[in-house]
Amino acid sequence: MSKVFIVTGHGKFAAGVKSSLDMLLGAGDDLYFVDFEETDSDVTLKEKFSKILSERKDAEVLFICDLLGGTPYKVAAQLANETDKIEVVAGCNIGSIMEAFMGREEHSLSDLADFIVDVSKNFTIRFKKVNTNSINTNQDFSEGI
Fold first, then answer.
1. How many Å apart are CA 131 and CA 89, to the nearest integer?
2. Residue 28 pLDDT class (50, 70, 90 cuts)
3. Beta-strand runs (E) in 38-125
4. What is the rounded (10 degree) CA torsion for 115, 46, 58, 20?
5. CA-CA distances (angstroms) from residue 64 to 26, 36, 78, 84, 128?
6. What is the pLDDT of residues 130-139, one digit of tens each?
7. Domain harbouring 14, CATH code
8. Residue 139: inside a domain, yes or no?
9. 142 lies in some domain
10. How is residue 14 annotated by DSSP?
11. What is the largest CA-CA distance in the chain?
12. Domain that holds residue 36
């Protein structure tokens, strides 16, 4: 059974993620992007989701939402409660979405949901500054580090 991802969020969140993933992965037939815009309601958002779900009845679906508890998350969660073919995650980043999408066939839908959350945590770090007194300022970084 194929697995599709529906990326959704407030404003132009999904469109922004689409732009990044198109650059990094290329367009994917199993990737959908649904923005929750100011003119939308929970009803119109559910209609957008339902249209995709009806087109991909054969597929398992992983909803990737911008925020835990927001309208996109709540509507996706309502749909997930109706079937075992839908999982919902929130707060994921571009790196984790990319990793999960590339490895989607290696995991069950439930494991894929856990995987993307774990990868999100691993991709979230804080840059720790180096001691600037010990840096060789004569070093050429023009080609990167």
1. 38
2. confident
3. 60-65, 86-90
4. -50
5. 18, 13, 14, 16, 29
6. 877 665 556 5
7. 3.40.50.510
8. no
9. no
10. H
11. 62
12. 3-134
